[in-house]
Amino acid sequence: MVATTLEKHLAATANAIRAAFRVDELPKTLIVLGSGFKGFEKAINSSKNIELGQLPHVATPSVQGHGASLVMGSVDGTPVVVMTGRLHLYEGLSAHDIVYPLRALSQIGVKRVLLTNASGSLRSNIPPGSLVAINDQINLTGTSCLIGPTGKYFGKQFLDMSSAFDAQWTQKICLLDKTIVRGVYAGVLGPAYETPAEAKMLAGLGADVVGMSTVQEVIAAHQLGLKVSCLSFVTNMSGGLGETLTHQDVLDLVAKNQERLQSILIQTVGV
Ligand code: HPA
């Protein structure tokens, strides 16, 4: 897509969001909810809601209909916008498609984004149930939202990624809950989970947790000049390291930790 077409599409998407929310500008803080963090939108006061799939030019997932929406409102008096789900590469979408909503939101006032996700752990000292503040990432998806002619439309195409995660904001978030640990996130394509050999390789590369999202959003947000922070909830050990968890075990773990995760997100909006 050439820049002028993209420009028109983004303007149409931004206008549709403005019209639906009846505002010119959105709150400056965006929170993107990954698995494990869903339900946080219920903590938002006087919220207004738009289905992401109803916005013009937002890609529709071909594999899973997540029913993601944008919710705008406030938490303890601080305005916030929340995306209740995200698009993934494994749904058959391009890197450009999956960061498109973020790019549209940045055009209408979003200045910082907290990305949340679920991950598998690569370290025995980061067991399921841990919450990890991501302080660096390894993009192993084999693609980038900066490739091609539109890669330089939003900023530098050869982007400096040496400080993509905002250290100050992340530090403030870590102070909210002393159990949060820091770690490196490996972003893979999925959708199959890692083999034991892949999990071993990822640990050897320096990753602490692995997941199938987020890395493209971090690149796009950093290129746009947004402050970025990322919290990852560990649902399992990757590649069969440690004990095997059933899907029910994962759901139980998420349910057990829901209040704690929601409380951290509520406090994050204000720091
Ligand atoms: N691997 C990749 N993605 C994941 C995992 C995992 O073990 N757990 C949750 N998302």
List the helices and strands and how they pair.
Blueprint: H1 3-21, E1 29-32, E2 45-51, E3 69-75, E4 78-83, H2 95-106, E5 112-121, E6 131-139, H3 167-175, E7 181-187, H4 196-205, E8 209-211, H5 215-223, E9 227-237, H6 247-269
Parallel strand pairs: 1-4, 1-5, 5-9, 6-7, 7-8
Antiparallel strand pairs: 2-3, 3-4, 5-8, 6-9
Helix pairs in contact: 1-2, 2-5
Hypoxanthine (HPA) binds next to strand 5, strand 8 and strand 9.
Structural class: alpha/beta
| Gross morphology | globular
Helix and strand string, N-terminal first? HEEEEHEEHEHEHEH
Rg (C-alpha, Å): 18 Å
Largest beta sheet, briefly? 5 strands, mixed, barrel
Question: What's this entry about, in short?
Answer:
The protein has 271 residues and is α/β, with parallel strands linked by helices. It has helices spanning 3-21, 95-106, 167-175, 196-205, 215-223, 247-269, and strands spanning 29-32, 45-51, 69-75, 78-83, 112-121, 131-139, 181-187, 209-211, 227-237. A five-stranded mixed barrel has the order 5-8-7-6-9, surrounded by four helices.
Question: Can you describe this structure?
Answer:
It is a single chain. This protein has 271 residues and is of the alpha/beta class. It has helices spanning 3-21, 95-106, 167-175, 196-205, 215-223, 247-269; strands at 29-32, 45-51, 69-75, 78-83, 112-121, 131-139, 181-187, 209-211, 227-237. Strands 5-8-7-6-9 form a 5-stranded mixed barrel, surrounded by 4 helices. A hairpin with a 2-residue loop joins strand 3 and strand 4. The model has no long low-confidence stretch (mean pLDDT 92). Bound molecules: hypoxanthine. Hypoxanthine binds at residues 118-120, 193-194, 210-212, 235-236, 238.
